[in-house]
Amino acid sequence: MFVFVGLIAFLAFVLAxxxxxxxxxxxxxxxxxxKSRAIWAALIAAFLPxxxxxxxxxxxxxxxxxxVVPVAGLIIGAxxxxxxxxxxxxxxxxxxxAVGRGPVSETVFD
Length: 110
Fold this sequence. Notes:
Blueprint: H1 2-28, H2 34-61, H3 68-99
Helix pairs in contact: 1-2, 1-3, 2-3
């Protein structure tokens, strides 16, 4: 039971992180297309929680052949989370934010 609650909490955290990063990218980089902002938000939100285990494994084992399998597993897991969990949320959020926006002008002051 605790495993399922932990999994739901982790997925909720990753979804909130995805929407937050998509919102920040919408504010910081409005000249990028909403599709690229959605992709970047999904990748950043998926790899951010996985960075701590990757850094821990690499610091304990070093850059030796024993570290390849666990690090590759974490990277593949992060890509899976990015594709299945994060990208749909970032896609719909970025698309909805881009619908009501007009073209972005490059001049700040007229």
